[in-house]
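Field log, afternoon session.

UNIT: design team B
ACTIVITY: writing a sequence onto a fixed backbone
BACKBONE:
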């Protein structure tokens, strides 16, 4: 690197001498060439990049010439956007560079699953409270046996196990009898206590059943997100196609030699 700077310093006087010995037209070309070489060797570049929306704009620090480079974007696959949106709502929009729309599907997905969790927690809490209440006020024994949902429904409709069994015997439904010695015993102290139990039991079952509507809403959100992601991908492809096809581009700048303006540069290009 030191040798390179030394070579530049040695060649600089020769370059200035050459400018004074040749005619004006040739001296201008050599002047531009030597200045460009000096800046490139000492600083590494003679153009300053400026970020733009469609790419980068390079401004030459010596001549002031502006050169715009456009970054060509690749098209998005609508099929891939559909799959992403179906698997995770909003992800297809992120793939299609449409997060401003996809974020609403993501928020909806999170809200629905939080609602599902809330229904599960609240419903199970109501059922646990109902079973605990029946243990205290109806004398049932849950124990280690599996909870028979039909049993817990029946104790909400009958005052005691004898009332229930007598009705089944009248209709000849012997296979539906509850045997107290097997743990299926209940006896409510009052109709009001049975009514309170029934309220919690029905409320818990209804809340857990409402989760099916939440699951349906989740499925709908996935399908709608996938379809919307396809439109987003097509919109993205149409947008980049309109930007890269047709139209005129104009570049303008000045040709400067140190602080002196030697000319104006103007160019027009057309994209197809």
């Amino acid at each position: 690197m030191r040798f390179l700077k030394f070579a530049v310093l040695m060649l600089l006087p020769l370059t200035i001498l050459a400018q004074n010995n040749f005619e004006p037209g040739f001296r201008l070309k050599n002047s531009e060439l030597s200045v460009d070489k000096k800046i490139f060797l000492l600083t590494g570049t003679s153009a300053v990049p400026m970020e733009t929306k469609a790419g980068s704009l390079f401004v030459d620090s010596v001549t002031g010439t502006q050169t715009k480079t456009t970054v060509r974007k690749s098209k998005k696959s609508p099929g891939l956007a559909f799959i992403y949106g179906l698997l995770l709502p909003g992800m297809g929009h992120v793939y299609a560079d449409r997060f401003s729309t996809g974020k609403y599907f993501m928020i909806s997905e999170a809200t629905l699953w939080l609602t599902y969790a809330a229904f599960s927690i609240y419903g199970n809490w109501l059922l646990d409270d109902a079973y605990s209440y029946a243990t205290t006020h109806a004398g049932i024994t849950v124990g280690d046996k599996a909870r028979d949902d039909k049993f817990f429904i029946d104790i909400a409709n009958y005052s005691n196990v004898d009332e229930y069994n007598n009705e089944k015997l009248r209709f000849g439904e012997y296979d539906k009898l509850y045997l107290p010695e097997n743990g299926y015993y209940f006896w409510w102290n009052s109709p009001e206590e049975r009514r309170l139990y029934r309220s919690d039991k029905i409320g818990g079952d209804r809340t857990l059943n409402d989760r099916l509507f939440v699951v349906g809403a989740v499925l709908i959100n996935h399908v709608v997100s996938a379809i919307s992601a396809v439109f987003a991908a097509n919109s993205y492809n149409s947008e980049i196609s309109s930007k890269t096809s047709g139209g005129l581009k104009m570049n303008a700048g000045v040709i400067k030699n140190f602080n002196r303006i030697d000319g104006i540069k103007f160019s027009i290009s057309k994209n197809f």
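LOG NOTE: Residues 99-137 form the longest helix (39 residues).
NEXT ACTIVITY: expression trials, pending approval
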